[in-house]
Amino acid sequence: MRKHEFTAEQRKCIEESCIPLGVYQFLNERVVVLAVSDGLCNLLGSSREETVELMEKDMYRGCHPDDLARVEEEALKFARNGDEYNSIYRTKNRDNKSYSIVHAHGKRINLEDGTSILVTWYIAEKNYYLNQAELDIKFGNSFDCIPFTENIITDNCYDTLTGLPNMSYFFNLLEEGRKEFRALGKKIAVLYFDLIGMKSFNGSYGMEEGDKLLRAVAGLLKRYYSAENCSHLGQDHFAVYTDATMVEETLKDFFEDLKYINNGKSLYVSVGIYIDRFEKVGVGTACDRAKIACDQVKNNFFSNYYYYDEKLRDLSIKKDYFLSNIDNAIKGEWLEVFFQPIIRTASGRVCDEEALVRWNDPEKGMFTPNDFIPVLEDARIIHRLDLYVVDKVLEYLKEKQRMGIELVPVSVNLSRYDFQLCDMVDEICKRVDASGFSRKFINLEITESVTSINPEYIRIQFTRFHEEGFSLWMDDFGSGYSSLNVLKDFEFDLMKFDMRFMRSFKDSNKSRIILTELIQMAKKLGISTITEGVEDEEQFRFVRDIGCEKAQGYYFGKPNPKKNIFNIDKEKIRFQFENPRETPYYDAISVIGLNDPSVNKGYSMEVAGYFNAVPMGILEVKDGKYFIVRYNKAYVEFLMETDFLDLEMIKNNYIVESKRIPEPKFCDTIDKCIKTDQWESVENSVENDYVINSFVRKIATNPETGANAVLLMILSIRKPGR
């Protein structure tokens, strides 16, 4: 249907009328203005052009918020198929402070050519009321009592807060608008708006002020795009469709005006733009694509926009594929679990493994976790994947046990959304207990971002996991999410340092300093440590020397599927994996801090004055032989100076046998400390003309080999006569 055109005589008759009236036509799911009278222009205090623009873009701009949705609903019902229209509502006066009462009465007129037009008369009350309180005094709650029929409630098309079309009605408007644009040879743009920081705004100013801001944003959108081109989708999200040719210019002006709405109490906004130039998609998909683009806006310090492009289109197609095939992937075991070794720096043995999942598609090939995990998180079905991985890890442990391979704990990554989607503690407990394995064989890796959900709730879940015997690891510390406050408020057993520290290892000394201090901090907090991303000998020696207990990276082995691990020679595997009966022994050795004596248990204040970056190391004593297990830089220099070892010996070995036996006085004191389990002093022992004073104490005994680990602290080193 085309827009009706009046004859010149008809138009003159309407426009020169002193009665406030408007003549409209309902086309493509929206009201189009055909003519307005002088009386209506006078009532609104605007020119004819301004009146037409107002009635087309935002007919009820000054309408009281409590009346807005009802009036728009009544008008739309009349425009669609009603014969008559009667409505009463409050509208702001020109002073923008007080309200007056408007009665609107409309009739549908069917012309001879079959065109249906809508004529509406407007009558304003002669009495004007200064404010809402005076309106309430005169009319009480009469506006609240205006009846809503069941059809109006059922067919609701407008958002009650902002008066904008709701999502359902907006999709109808967008569909009709798209047809109209295409008929004119124009491209249509769909915009998705997301206010930045609405939660914090509500927390600072209150929900009522937040609602005022949303109404102000809606008003600004109406001014720029017209009311029927906009929608309040819910929460702090809005959508718009408009001509694609001036999108950026209009948005820049919109961003500037946005700063000053609501008396300056405003927020920045992220905007995603989808231009209808790809394959034909439904209006819902068009809005989804605009939202996908909106989610790419990373900067939260000013308003910005992002286009949906070919790259995002490919990601969108991939996303749809993952969601459509997740059931097939689980049932068909396309989700393949890989295992990467974690090495104990003191022994060079595999002490843990991490389970990492890949999507091995029979048609499309291998997908990495970064491809599909964010998709499953957004869809809130990530818990299905994580519990699937737990099941596969338990199967892996059973196969290793059957093959006679030493078992070490396996860490499983949990998403922060897991805790919202199911009782993750109960689900994991049930699975592990049913397998017959001890819960100590499953470690749980969780990023710090999990605490952003509900800190108190997450704290309770952490406590439950600990009470059930699981170890909790903070994953990706230093990745950009980590906060020292999390270490203060939540109980983690281990910190996993992000591989970014290793990536900048060669380029910046800052990374070395920061990592060194973080590891010392962790030891003082009683938290174990792992460094990820170790890729060469230099990096490994560094993390070992600064006291990091465990290391992970391609230097030790890339992630492998279990079939590859099982194909390795069994004897080689048995040598590589740590004997679980020796784990407490190596744990005791690993937690000792060699750069700051005060972090060690049993450290006595009586000897505090002696220690200040002193040479420190850990010796292993067995059958009269001495092995150097760990050392700091000062101690290894001492050992080379006194001919206990040379540089080549420590380059390629984790535990090094001393080239010679220490002098008898030192050996006797070592034997004594092993028996007493106390600090013992070694006074004036002589090694290669050096006179040494030191303290020694037993750390632990290896239950398998009978070897004893001893901590050594050198207090002074001098040559006779000096």
UniProtKB/TrEMBL annotation:
Residues 186-310 form the GGDEF domain. SUPFAM superfamilies: EAL domain-like, Nucleotide cyclase, PYP-like sensor domain (PAS domain). Residues 319-573 form the EAL domain. It comes from Acetitomaculum ruminis DSM 5522. Pfam families: EAL, GGDEF, PAS_3. Transmembrane segments: none annotated. PROSITE patterns: EAL (PS50883), GGDEF (PS50887). It comes from the Bacteria. GO terms for molecular function: cyclic-guanylate-specific phosphodiesterase activity. This is Diguanylate cyclase (GGDEF) domain-containing protein.
